[in-house]
Structure prediction request, 287 residues.
Amino acid sequence: MLQPAPLSQRIAAHRPLAVAFVAAVLGLAAPVASAEEAGFIKPGEDTLTLNLGAIVNSFSTSVRFDGAGQRGTDLDLENSGLAKTHTSLYASGTWRFLPNHRIDAQYWSSHRSGTKQVGRDVIIDGNVVPLGVSLSIDNRTQFFTADYRYSFVRNESVEVAGVLGLYGGQFKYDLSATGSDGHAVVSTNKNASTTVPLPLIGVTVDWYPQPRWRVSGDLTGMKANIGSVDGSALLVAASTDYMLTRNIGLGARYMYSDVSATVTKTSFNGDLTFRTNSISVYAKLMF
Prediction:
C-alpha cells in the first residue's frame, strides 16, 4: 500500500501553485494602485460625464385608436409588419453640480415601418376595414428621461442615491389599411401622435470594485394621471464601464422599459403599450 507523502513534501509540491496564486492576486491589485497613481478621477468626484454610442432595442409594442364611442382594434405592431429589433444612436450624460447632487439625462429614438396582410377585420378610429386587410404602419419613437439624484451614501466604494425625474416619450403613427367586403374595396388612413410625460421616483446604486471600474443599477417608475394622459412607467437598468485613461472609457448598459398609457387627445385617442429590452455600448468622457 502506498503511503502518503510527508506533509513537508506535499507543501513543497504545491509551492509553485502558491507562488502563482500570490502573483495573480498582486497582479489584480496592481491596476488599483496604478489607477490611483496615474491620477484617475476618484469615484464620486466627477463633475461631468457624457456617453455616446449605439443601442439595440427588442420591442413588444401595441397601439389602439378609438373612434367616437367605438373601441378600436388592439394592434400588435411586431405582428403587423414592424421589425422586432432596431439599432440607433444612444446618448446620456450626468452633471454633478454639488458633491451629493446630480442631474442625469438619456435619449434615443427609433423609426420602423412595415406592411403585412392581416386575416381579420380591423377597426381604426371608428372605421371598419373588413377581412383580408393590407396594413401598413410607420412608427417613430423618441425616448427621453431626465432626473435629479441626491446621494445618501457617497464614498470611494459605493454611492446610493434617491431619484426624482421625468419620463418623456413621443410616439408618432402613420397607418393605412385596405380590405374588401367582397363587393367593394374599403380603406382608411390614420395619422396620430402623442407625448407621454410621466413622473419617476426610484433609487440608483453605483459600486466601484476599482477606482476606474463602475457597476451600476437603476430602478425608477410611477403611475400617474397628467391631463389627458393616464399612464405608468417602469424602468430597470444595469450598466458597467471602465476608464481607459483619466477622461476616456468604455461601457455597456442593459435597460428594460415598460410604458403604458390611455390618451384622450385630438391628435391621439386610444391606448399604447411600449415595452423594450435594450442593450447599449458607448464611449464615455468624464471630467
